[in-house]
Amino acid sequence: MNSEYSKPWVQRHWILLLVLAAGFMLVLLIGLFLITMYSVMTAMKGSPVYIEAMNKARASTELAAALGRPIEDEPWLVGASQRQEGEGHAFFIIPVHGPKGTAEVHADADLHDGVWTFRTLRAKPEHSSDFIDLREADSATR
Predict the structure, then answer these.
(1) Which whole number is the average pLDDT over 28-57?
(2) Are residues 127 and 142 in contact, defined by beta-carbon separation less than 8 angstroms?
(3) What is this structure's pTM?
């Protein structure tokens, strides 16, 4: 029988365990970040301002001439929305693209008495210095 003392596996490979634990924690943090971002983007894309801005962008003949059809949104956007007791404000910059190019839709709206009204709703195609006003693209909805 061998009388030599042998250290347990954990004591002999503690650096490997430390690296594996750090890697596991990093994967968990990245996963949490991605889930949080997905939830925030989903919530923002469900707002009435975002939905109306995309409907007007898709209905715009000028934007369709610049980008082609179909006009699709990107998976990310920049913006903020705030509501309190029937009043609020929302601002979004929505990247969109079509077969011929890309653009940014700028939407700035106020909520008064439960009704959203656009202060600004315009698109800026990638290779143009001019904005396309989208407020008149479909005046049937507000």
Answers:
(1) 93
(2) no
(3) 0.77
Tokens 């309190």 correspond to 84
> What pLDDT score was predicted for residue 2?
56
Rounded Cα gap, residues 126 and 133, in angstroms: 15
Q: Which residue type does 58 have?
A: R
Collapsing DSSP to helix, strand or coil, 9 comes out as: helix
Residues 116-128 have pLDDT tens digits of 999 999 999 998 8
